[in-house]
Design goal:
By secondary structure, the chain is of the alpha/beta class. The chain has 13 helices and 14 strands. It is globular, with a radius of gyration of 21 Å. The chain binds pyridoxal-5'-phosphate.
């Protein structure tokens, strides 16, 4: 059976990337390889929309998240953590592990924070060192108002730290223009690479705090990476293959153009949402991001069976809900190497599965709604 991958990571890898990642091994201390590292850093700056330093780690995205806590917060230091999903919770788990003092701003899953709430909390707690949140909360499909948060946090001494692991390269984002101090991401979502590479872009304001941080780090000591990456080299044996793949991914992003790319994912999201509504289903996220569509499972439908049937009977890997929304939502990701006919295909399969599970609608209504929007792309 032909397989379709529309999960929120890992995402499909284009053939031209796979090809360069299967070339013979190169040594990581050669001038030729260092030149490639230099180019990837420049390319990542374009994708992050920043002039700041960009660090590269051989780790999954969480490695960069860990570093964004352990290099920033001393024990006992306050940080605001906006908690509206599984990955938001991860910021909290890391902060607790390093014995920082997280102040949680709990928001119901599926909703986004009201920026004013963060402003008030920052005013009441002048000693907060950082605000942690996501660009897109992948467990719920919500987009967080990062631009508005940037306007608020920039007026304080606190840093704004964004996990853009699923959002980067798909969801509209401008690190410098939006006053973001640290942005972390990973390779296996919007960047179309296999899992195993993580990135962090770090502002001067953030470096000042990092220089003063006394927390212990070894593999993720960002000060060491900064020194080494200034010379286009990794402190350790970095993933050579990911660097080669990343160069290709950057080329693909640049050829399309970041703005065009944002627009394409917006259209994919609009089409996907239109199909869902036409099928009589409800969206889970408000506001919905552009890189994933999260859908409420109707009470009469078995949500776990839906995701399983999609995979086992039709070859489509989508995602179910995690933790408190397990069985209650399903998620169709449209990040990375996903184009309009992937959306058509997944909606077609979804209609088949929904019919099978007893949901009532007219054949093709979801498809027609999506086609109408995708034709205009
Ligand atoms: C996938 C994801 C992560 C976790 O990344 P790993 O690469 O699995 O460590 C963290 N945050 C968000 C928003 C994600 O989508």
């Amino acid at each position: 059976m032909k397989k379709f991958l529309l999960a929120p990571g890992p995402t499909p890898v284009p053939e031209e990337i796979l090809r360069v990642m299967s070339e013979p091994m190169v040594h990581h201390r050669t001038p030729a390889f260092k030149a490639m590292v230099g180019k990837t850093i420049e390319g990542l700056k374009y994708i992050f929309q920043t002039k700041n330093d960009v660090l590269i780690f051989s780790a999954s995205g969480t490695g960069a998240m860990e570093g964004a806590v352990s290099n920033v917060l001393n024990r006992g230091e306050k940080a605001i953590i906006i908690r509206n999903g599984k990955f938001a919770e991860r910021w909290g788990e890391i902060a607790e592990k390093f014995e920082a003092n997280p102040i949680y701003l709990d928001v119901p899953w599926g909703s986004a924070i009201e920026p004013k709430v963060v402003e008030n909390l920052l005013n009441e707690n002048r000693d907060v060192k950082a605000v942690y949140t996501q660009l897109t909360e992948t467990s719920t499909g919500v987009v967080i108002p990062v631009k508005e948060l940037g306007e608020i946090v920039k007026k304080t001494d606190a840093l704004l730290v964004i996990d853009a692991i699923s959002g980067l390269g798909g969801q509209k984002f401008y690190m410098d223009k939006w006053n973001v101090d640290i942005c972390v991401s990973g390779s296996q979502k919007g960047l179309m690479l296999p899992p195993g590479h993580a990135y962090a872009a770090v502002s001067e304001k953030a470096w000042e705090k990092i220089e003063k941080c006394t927390q212990s780090n070894y593999y993720f000591d960002w000060k060491v990476y900064r020194k080494k990456l200034a010379k286009n080299t990794d402190p350790f044996t970095g993933s050579v293959l990911h660097v080669k793949g990343l160069l290709k991914a950057i080329e693909i992003v640049k050829n399309e153009g970041l703005e065009k790319r944002f627009e394409r994912y917006q259209n994919l999201a609009t089409a996907c949402r239109a199909a869902i509504k036409a099928l009589g289903l409800e969206l889970f996220a408000n506001p919905s991001c552009d890189v994933e569509t999260a859908v409420k499972v109707p009470e009469t439908v078995d949500g776990l069976a839906l995701v399983k049937k999609m995979r086992d009977e039709y070859g489509f890997t989508i995602a179910g809900g995690q933790a408190e929304v397990k069985g209650k939502i399903f998620r169709i990701a449209h990040m990375g190497y996903i184009e309009r006919f992937d959306i058509i295909a997944v909606i077609a399969a979804l209609e088949m599965v929904l019919k099978d599970l007893g949901w009532k609608f007219e054949w093709g209504v979801g498809l027609a709604a999506a086609q109408k929007i995708l034709t205009e792309m």
